[in-house]
Amino acid sequence: MPQQPVDRPPLTGKTVLVVGASSGIGADTARVLAADGAAVMLVARTAGPLEELAGELTSAGHQVAYRTGDITDASSVAAFVDATVDRFGRLDGAFNSAATTQAGRLDRVTDEDFDRIMAVNVKGTWLCLREEVRVMERQGAGSIVNVSSIGGLRGSSGMGAYQATKHAVIGLTRTAAHDFGPLGVRVNVIAPGPTESPMLDRTREAIPGGVEARIAATPLRKAGTGAEVGASVSFLLSDLAAHISGVVLPVDGGFLA
């Protein structure tokens, strides 16, 4: 692999799709990827936050576009993947960060809530993988990063359905690394610990004291930031990680150490 020039951002010349870019980790990661040289397509269900973020990044001199979409709908996913190629000419990387959360003891989760979280976190990730690889296979190269959680690597009470989905995302990623590696496509997954975001705020409300207990048990004694998570995503999408696939990377301040 050619050496990356030290003064050249690591994603220069690459197009990256960020799914779930309206807020939190997705939006902060989009900022990191743009700063690292990527042309970025932003996707989420609601246009307003995407328009605002796209304006911010465009004003800073970055190549950015946005498109609304629903990751639980196959035709919608295919449409925003195709829109990325139509706008930028190719798809080199994808960050599948769209997700929803849930709290409650397993036997008290409703059928509707279980189906909803599975549809978004598991089926949605699978649909994104399928459509992204459709394009990357034609190109003979690509890199995909999915989002799990430290809850996908261990259990705890109060978020069982959510944790089940995050275990599933790790399984999807590992299988995808085997399936798509021969096509030239790398697939990895990050497992964030508590990370400051609207989702973390909702968890604080649903499980009083739970987030603070995890932070107290974290060697670095703090929650992460979206930019810190974004830096790990940028690395995995870049050629610096050219021989890394099928990896689960905790971004958790040492919580799982």
TrEMBL record:
Organism superkingdom: Bacteria
Keyword NAD attached: yes
SUPFAM superfamilies the UniProt entry points to: NAD(P)-binding Rossmann-fold domains
Stretches assigned to the Ketoreductase domain: 14-197
Entry keyword annotation includes NAD: yes
Gene3D superfamilies: NAD(P)-binding Rossmann-like Domain
UniProt cross-references to InterPro entries, sorted A to Z: KR_dom (IPR057326), NAD(P)-bd_dom_sf (IPR036291), SDR_fam (IPR002347)
Keywords: NAD, Oxidoreductase
MF term (GO), any: oxidoreductase activity
Family note: Belongs to the short-chain dehydrogenases/reductases (SDR) family.
PANTHER family: DEHYDROGENASES, SHORT CHAIN, ESTRADIOL 17-BETA-DEHYDROGENASE 8-RELATED
Protein name, UniProt field: SDR family oxidoreductase
